[in-house]
Amino acid sequence: MVCTEVVTDDVERVMSDPAFDYTPSWLDRALERIAEFLGDLVSPSFGGAGGTFGGGVGGVVAWLFVVAALVAVVVVVVVAVRNRVRRPEVTEESTVDVEHRRPAAEWAADAARFEAEGAWAEAVRARYRELVRRLVDARSLPDVAGLTTTELRRELDRTTPSASGDFDLVSTVFEAAWYRLEPVGPGDLGGLREAAARVLQAPRVPSGGGAPLEAVGGVRL
After folding, report:
1. Which string of b and e fits 171-201 if b means at least 16 CB within 10 Å?
2. What average pLDDT does the segment 181-209 reach?
3. In this predicted model, what pLDDT tens digit does every residue of 8-53 receive, in sequence order?
4. For residue 65, how far is the Cα from the chain centroid?
5. CA gap 193, 127 in Å, rounded
6. What is the mean pLDDT of residues 83-112?
């Protein structure tokens, strides 16, 4: 008798562990009730002889209830999943936006450092970004992040058409070094800097037409 009581106590203690708690969740209970409701709808007694709805109309109404119930199930599942999965908040700014707002002086400092290190591709990129930032500051290019070299060429053709050839040269060197990963050296960088200086010296056409405005500036690159 004592042994039986001891075994019973052990069983009760083990089964009281949370791991053996099989109580259904609210979602499980809701789905079970919906399943029972659907089973009642599609049962032979529903809509048949002696049922609440008679004939073909009753069958149509029954299937409408079935479709509505299925839609309700999908909605419940989607809401439950969205509530349980926490969406991460986007707090970091994109690299494109950050680079676009960097002052030209910072790009110039980076370029000088890369040139001293012999990192020619990085120096080409920094000199190109410096030129674009100076043109944006001078309103020769729109202050919009993420524009491609083709879009920048098109915008400069509109505001400073006399600089188109030199800006195309600068863009070509930049594309070759940074996108096509072609080897570049000090000669390529020197040609880019000379062309960039001419771009900055080119007069800007006013938006309303008329005589060209002053040059962007005689900044040495």
Report:
1. bebbbbbbeeeeebeeebbeebbebbbbbbb
2. 90
3. 555 565 555 555 555 666 666 766 776 666 566 555 554 444 444 4
4. 41
5. 7
6. 76
DSSP state for residue 162 in the 8-state scheme: G
Rounded Cα distance, 141 and 162, in Å: 14
Start-end of H helices in 51-94:
55-84
C-alpha R_g of the chain = 36
| Paired tokens of 66 | 């079935």
The first and second tokens of residue 164, run together, are 């188109």
Answer whether 138's CB lies under 8 Å from 214's CB: no
CB 34 within 8 A of CB 73: yes
Phi-psi region of 51 (alpha: psi -120 to 50; beta: other; left: phi over 0): beta
Name residue 221's amino acid.
L
Interatomic CA distance for residues 64 and 150, integer angstroms: 56
Its pTM stands at 0.55
